[in-house]
């Protein structure tokens, strides 16, 4: 079976801007964002804050940045200085996929623990958080990833997050949420975005994954941290100029592409069902990420599937990862399921 046009399930980062999004970018009013003069950037930041902020939120401002890695880096640096510590799970994106940026650029230590599908509990964190003392690196911040990439799009229940927030307050540490795919958690559980905003001291969200914007993330933080965050953004090379055309894409995505993520989740379930029907073992997807166990060499399967016109990624030596997104149709996931099964 050969497919004429590739079906790309490697990531939801491969999405292309829709024609309407491109039109919004073309019409964007712009200015120099380093000087704080880009109205489209300001509008995007205000909208993000409107979604996640509120009277009970610690998040009182927002900062548009080029990448999710930069958003996480700046957010964690708001709490941990060089020589201090962040606690997270062992498969966290900040550990597995950010090129040791916290260690390289910030001198921040990560201390990790193995978890079930990347999700920490308050009980686990209570054992991990340690106070500062002579010759002891004290924990400054807890990092949570929601949804969890390597956990297969797993979702933190809001009650678990509230328990972690209460523990963090009791132990005097901050909470940073890597919410690159928090939109997926919101759509899957109907938890209001503002409820997540009440958990975090800093929170990053990505615009260029399921939302389909070409680039960009937003970091939500306190107003008192904004100027320091802007300095760090500039130091990392993120002081951009007429960024409003990119901000306009993100703003369009916020207004038009959040609720449609339910289609991606449905397609992920359809893909999982099709793979199971063909004899493969699949982790039941909670959102848009499907983890597939294969009996042989996963990279070899990836190559064979590519020859059939389906792009998919290896997660490990015997695990594949497929991610549905706005450029993937119901028909294409049915086709992809057959191609994967034929290639194992």
Give an overview of the whole structure.
The protein contains 14 helices and 13 strands. With 344 residues, the protein is of the alpha/beta class. It has 2 domains: 93 residues, Aspartate Aminotransferase, domain 1 (Alpha-Beta Complex); 226 residues, Aspartate Aminotransferase, domain 2. It has a 7-stranded mixed β-sheet with strand order 2-8-7-6-5-3-4, sandwiched between helices. Helix 7 links the parallel strand 5 and strand 6. It is globular and about 55 Å long. The chain starts with 6 loop residues before the first strand and ends with a helix. The model has no long low-confidence stretch (mean pLDDT 96).
Question: Which class do the helix and strand fractions yield?
Answer: alpha/beta
Number of strands: 13
Name of the CATH first level of the largest domain: Alpha Beta
Radius of gyration: 20 Å
Reported CATH architecture of the largest domain: 3-Layer(aba) Sandwich
Brief summary:
The chain is an alpha/beta fold and 344 residues long.
Feature tags:
14 helices, Aspartate Aminotransferase, domain 2, seven-stranded mixed sheet, 2 domains, Aspartate Aminotransferase, domain 1, 13 strands, 344 residues, alpha/beta, four-stranded antiparallel sheet, 41% helix, single chain
Chart the SSEs and their pairings.
Elements: E1 7-8, H1 19-26, H2 39-52, E2 61-65, H3 68-77, E3 85-89, H4 93-96, H5 101-106, E4 109-113, H6 122-128, E5 139-145, H7 158-171, E6 174-179, H8 182-189, H9 193-197, E7 202-206, E8 217-221, H10 226-235, H11 244-256, H12 261-277, E9 281-282, E10 289-293, H13 298-307, E11 310-311, E12 313-316, E13 319-323, H14 330-343
Parallel strand pairs: 1-11, 3-4, 3-5, 5-6, 6-7
Antiparallel strand pairs: 2-8, 7-8, 9-10, 10-13, 12-13
Helix pairs in contact: 1-11, 2-11, 12-14, 13-14
């Amino acid at each position: 079976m050969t497919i004429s046009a590739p079906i790309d399930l490697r990531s939801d980062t491969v999405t292309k801007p829709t024609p309407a999004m491109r039109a919004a970018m073309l019409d964007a009013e712009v200015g120099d964002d380093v000087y704080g003069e880009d109205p489209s950037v300001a509008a995007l930041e205000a909208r993000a804050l409107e979604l996640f902020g509120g009277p009970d939120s610690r998040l009182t401002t927002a900062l548009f940045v080029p990448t999710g890695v930069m958003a996480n880096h700046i957010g964690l640096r708001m709490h941990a200085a060089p020589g201090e510590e962040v606690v997270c799970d062992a498969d966290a994106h900040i550990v597995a996929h950010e090129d040791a940026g916290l260690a390289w650029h910030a001198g921040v230590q990560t201390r990790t623990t193995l978890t079930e599908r990347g999700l920490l509990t308050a009980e686990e964190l209570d054992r991990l958080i340690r106070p500062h003392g002579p010759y002891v690196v004290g924990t400054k911040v807890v990092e949570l990833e929601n949804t969890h990439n390597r956990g297969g799009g797993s979702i933190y229940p809001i009650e678990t997050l509230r328990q972690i927030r209460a523990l963090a307050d009791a132990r005097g540490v901050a909470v940073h949420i890597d919410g690159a795919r928090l939109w997926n958690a919101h759509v899957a559980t109907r938890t209001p975005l503002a409820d997540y905003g009440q958990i975090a001291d800093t929170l990053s969200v990505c615009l260029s994954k399921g939302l389909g914007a070409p680039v960009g993330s937003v970091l939500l933080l306190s107003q008192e941290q904004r100027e320091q965050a802007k300095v760090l953004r500039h130091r990392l090379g993120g002081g951009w100029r007429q960024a409003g055309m990119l901000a306009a894409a993100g703003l369009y995505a916020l207004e038009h592409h959040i609720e449609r993520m339910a289609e991606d989740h449905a397609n992920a379930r359809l893909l999982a069902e099709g793979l199971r029907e063909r004899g493969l073992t699949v982790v039941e997807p909670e959102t848009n990420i499907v983890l597939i166990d294969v009996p042989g060499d996963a990279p070899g399967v990836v190559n064979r599937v590519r020859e059939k016109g389906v792009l998919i990624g290896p997660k490990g030596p015997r695990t594949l990862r497929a991610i549905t997104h706005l450029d993937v149709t119901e028909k294409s996931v049915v086709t992809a399921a057959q191609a994967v099964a034929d290639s194992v």
